């Protein structure tokens, strides 16, 4: 055998062996990696199914405890001879509050008749006598909790599972069943809490493998339907074998996917939890490794084939073939030398073995002879040197890769490089073969881009500062507007109080019928002016964010009564029928909210309906759209047979100062603020408002709001208590002394006359300082205090009187034209007991006086008894 043949055989053995070794190492690495990925998937499914077992079993245990508690209460009361329904209802409420997942707790007697529980209506007889769980409890002495598979609820119209327990009479005989239904949506929400990879499933099935809940839901597929029992053969075999839990891999799950699945029989309930993760998902990382490894093996194989071919040619040919091989090497060298990128070969120690001219130019070397054997580590910038050494070591160890690093040329020029390297065999040792690209320009562009990005961030910060400055300016303007509104409110209402008061006084003394009619007209004009002022202040307060809704308990009936009282005469004068209706189910319901503002919206809408309706009727009604235990969605409608609205009118009538007819010769008056205020108020209540209308056929103005329900009760007003308050003051409190603090002479005269008409004695103070002096000398039954006054204002005077005077316990009532919420709060904070807004109606004044004079009389009586 010739040496050439032996060399060929040895070369084939080495190349084949090396490639086989690389192949087997890669295959072993990939197999081991796949096993790790599968182990992680199995661990994940086991952990999730265990967590699901704890979560569901805990909930079921809590439900069982609730049923057990109610059964104990029932059996204890049966032992005493009678069931206390109030006590059992309280127990049901407590247990249902602790177990929010329960749709309700209900109790049936031995005949199956449901007589007590959540939502039970005794007038509508409901029987469980034909239900399987009732029959089971009736015919079996088993005292444990019974689980019923999912059924479509007869009342709820949704799928539920049912948990029930039997309870016995004192002699041990069957007495009935306690049931706790749970909606499948509760279990679906439990399953949705687990963050699993895409295409994973979390399933609850009953003991017969029927579907209970699934996440993600698949309502359009048979496998996603409640009760569906299509499962993989592997799962069915494992479940039927009696195993409590198991983890397995299936390539044919019920939905056709390949998955790793864990299942477990749950404690406390005959259900099975199943968790499956898709192989496509948890093996995605492994598949990427396969692609990378295959590329590396292919590269090594390609290089080995290339080198083997070259060696075969060298061994197979004579001198002529060697020359041809030399020529081929020369051609390859030429290609490398003309390559615009750096091509270099580095030995194991990092010494430069070969480098093409492009690479020499990058390191500023005139020829390869000057750098042959040079350590490439010395060319790498100090900050990147350790990373390059580690990169080189990985390549020498057989890994291909890429690295970005900086070099410093022989003349000190700095460049940023990107090197792609593979390991090669050279002279029996592994060398580092790399193609390196100069990316200095690209990196400079990236730096410039970062600088531009930073510049943009600075611009954004500057713009943000400008916006904050603008916001501060807007807030300052808002505060200025608020101060102006407060002053305007006081300046408008103070003289208006004198005007309306003087009109009332003049009318009470007027005997001439024409004069009385003229005074009535003047009062109507004043009331209309007050309404306009109130509308303007309301819209201004809303725009300034100073209108705050109250929150109090109320019923709807008084709101509708007030509407009928205010608008009934106007409607009757025009020959219109005014109807108001409240459903019987809402009459006694107590809500929490702002009844005054709710009534304001209804009155605005109804007043518009009266204004724009010439004949026919107006209907005001409320409809309950949705209802829950805590709140109700109510729709209020005001329906008229008036002139109606066109499409263009609908688009603008809710804007401030707008009407459907905005011409100078319009037939109907008004500020155009009523609907705008109504829209803003409904918006503050969290609702929506709109209109359905046809020109010439009438309109339906409606709004919907969600009102919280209150658990408290609202007492009925005693009409006798507020009937003729002036007469009651005259009868109960004659001669009592009142201090009137008012700086405006007309308002002094009006208030003094109203007070003396009901038998009260009145002292007048022109400012807060005079009021403090009088309060130190005289005892008063009540003090009426203006706020804005010269010398000393009403707030300061109130604090001084309550701090030291003979009237520290005397009720002080604010009587002011300041009508903003903060004004009322400031008065109450200063110690005042109540608040009267000018201009006030005499009845309102007398009601307030009667309230606090009676309270003071009661306090005196109690003090006398104590003495």
* CATH homologous superfamily designation of the largest domain: PAS domain
Unreliable stretches, pLDDT < 50, 5 or more residues?
Answer: 658-667, 716-723, 863-867
Q: What share of residues is helical? A: 40-55%
Mean pLDDT: 83
> Would you state the CATH class of the largest domain?
Alpha Beta
Total number of distinct structural domains? 5
Which band does the percent of strand residues land in?
15-25%
N-end to C-end Cα span: 139 Å
Mass-distribution shape: extended
User: Judging by the overall fold, what is the CATH architecture of the largest domain?
Assistant: 2-Layer Sandwich
Count of distinct strands: 27
CATH fold title of the largest domain: Beta-Lactamase
Rg measurement, Å: 46 Å
What strand order characterises the main sheet? Answer: 2-1-5-4-3
Structural category? alpha+beta
- Biggest sheet record: 5 strands, antiparallel
User: Count of helical segments?
Assistant: 24
């Amino acid at each position: 055998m010739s040496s050439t043949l032996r060399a060929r055989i040895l070369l084939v053995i080495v190349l084949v062996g090396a490639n086989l070794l690389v192949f087997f190492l890669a295959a072993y690495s990939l197999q081991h990696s796949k096993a790790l990925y599968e182990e992680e998937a199995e661990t994940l499914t086991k952990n999730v199914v265990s967590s699901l077992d704890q979560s569901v079993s805990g909930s079921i245990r809590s439900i069982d405890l609730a049923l057990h508690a109610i059964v104990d209460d029932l059996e204890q009361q049966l032992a005493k001879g009678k069931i206390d329904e109030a006590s059992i209802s309280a127990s049901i409420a407590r247990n249902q509050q602790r177990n929010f997942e329960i749709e309700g707790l209900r109790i049936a007697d031995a005949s199956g008749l449901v007589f007590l529980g959540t939502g039970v209506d005794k007038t509508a007889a409901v029987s469980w006598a034909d239900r399987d769980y009732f029959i089971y409890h009736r015919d079996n002495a088993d005292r444990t909790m019974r689980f019923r598979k999912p059924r479509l609820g007869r009342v709820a119209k949704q799928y539920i599972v049912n948990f029930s327990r039997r309870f016995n009479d004192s002699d041990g005989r069957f007495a009935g069943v306690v049931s706790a239904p749970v909606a499948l949506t509760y279990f679906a929400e439990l399953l949705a809490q687990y963050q699993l990879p895409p295409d994973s499933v979390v399933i609850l099935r009953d003991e017969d493998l029927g579907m209970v809940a699934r996440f993600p839901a698949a309502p359009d597929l048979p496998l996603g339907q409640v009760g569906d029992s299509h499962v993989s053969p592997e799962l069915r075999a494992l479940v039927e074998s009696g195993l409590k839990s198991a983890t397995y891999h299936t390539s044919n799950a019920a939905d056709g996917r390949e998955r790793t699945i864990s299942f477990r029989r749950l404690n406390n309930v005959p259900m099975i939890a199943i968790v499956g993760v898709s192989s496509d998902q948890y093996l995605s990382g492994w598949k990427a490794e396969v692609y990378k490894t295959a590329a590396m093996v292919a590269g090594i194989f390609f290089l080995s084939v290339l080198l083997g071919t070259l060696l075969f040619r060298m061994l197979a040919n004579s001198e002529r073939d060697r020359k041809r091989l030399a020529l081929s090497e020369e051609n390859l060298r030429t290609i490398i030398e003309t390559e615009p990128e750096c091509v270099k070969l580095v030995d194991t120690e990092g010494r430069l073995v070969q480098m093409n001219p492009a690479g020499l130019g990058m390191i500023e070397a005139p020829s390869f002879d000057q750098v042959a054997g040079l350590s490439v580590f010395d060319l790498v910038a100090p900050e990147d040197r350790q990373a390059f050494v580690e990169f080189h070591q990985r390549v020498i160890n057989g890994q291909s890769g890429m690295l970005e690093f900086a070099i410093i040329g022989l003349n000190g020029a700095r460049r940023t490089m990107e090197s792609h390297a593979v390991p090669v065999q050279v002279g029996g040792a592994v060398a580092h073969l790399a193609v390196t690209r100069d990316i200095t320009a690209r990196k400079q562009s990236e730096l410039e881009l970062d600088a531009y990005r930073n510049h943009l961030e600075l611009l954004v910060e500057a713009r943000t500062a400008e916006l904050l400055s603008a916001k501060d300016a807007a807030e300052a303007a808002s505060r200025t507007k608020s101060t102006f509104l407060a002053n305007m409110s006081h300046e408008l209402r103070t003289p208006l109080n004198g005007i309306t008061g003087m009109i009332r006084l003049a009318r009470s003394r007027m005997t001439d019928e024409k004069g009385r009619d003229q005074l009535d007209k003047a009062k109507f004009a004043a009331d209309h002016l007050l309404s306009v002022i109130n509308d303007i202040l309301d819209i201004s307060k809303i725009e300034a964010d100073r209108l705050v809704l109250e929150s109090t308990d109320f019923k709807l009936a008084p709101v509708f009564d007030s509407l009928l009282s205010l608008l009934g005469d106007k409607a009757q004068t025009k020959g219109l029928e005014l109807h108001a209706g409240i459903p019987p189910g809402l009459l006694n319901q107590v809500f929490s909210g702002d009844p005054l503002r709710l009534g304001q919206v209804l009155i605005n809408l109804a007043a518009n309906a009266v204004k724009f309706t010439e004949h026919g009727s107006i209907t005001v009604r409320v409809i309950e759209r949705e209802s829950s235990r805590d709140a109700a969605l109510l729709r209020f409608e005001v329906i008229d047979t008036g002139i109606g609205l066109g499409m263009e009118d609908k688009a603008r009538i809710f804007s401030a100062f707008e009407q459907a007819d905005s011409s100078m010769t319009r037939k109907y008056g008004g500020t155009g603020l009523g609907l705008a205020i109504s829209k803003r108020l409904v918006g503050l209540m969290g609702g929506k408002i709109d209109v359905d209308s046809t020109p010439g056929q009438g309109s339906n103005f409606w709004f919907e709001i969600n009102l919280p329900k209150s658990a408290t009760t609202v007492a009925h007003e005693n009409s006798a208590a507020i009937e003729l308050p002036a007469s009651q003051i005259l009868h109960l409190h004659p001669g009592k002394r009142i201090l009137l603090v008012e700086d405006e002479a007309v308002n002094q005269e009006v208030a003094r006359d109203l007070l003396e008409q009901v038998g009260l004695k009145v002292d007048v103070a022109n400012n807060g300082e005079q009021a403090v002096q009088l309060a130190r000398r005289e005892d008063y039954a009540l003090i009426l205090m203006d706020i804005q006054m010269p010398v000393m204002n009403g707030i300061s005077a109130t604090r001084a009187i309550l701090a030291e005077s003979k009237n520290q316990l005397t009720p002080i009532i604010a009587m002011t034209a300041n009508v903003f919420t903060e004004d009322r709060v400031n008065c109450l904070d200063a110690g005042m007991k109540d608040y009267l807004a000018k201009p006030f109606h005499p009845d309102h004044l007398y009601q307030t006086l009667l309230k606090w004079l009676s309270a003071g009389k009661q306090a005196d009586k109690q003090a006398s008894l104590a003495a």
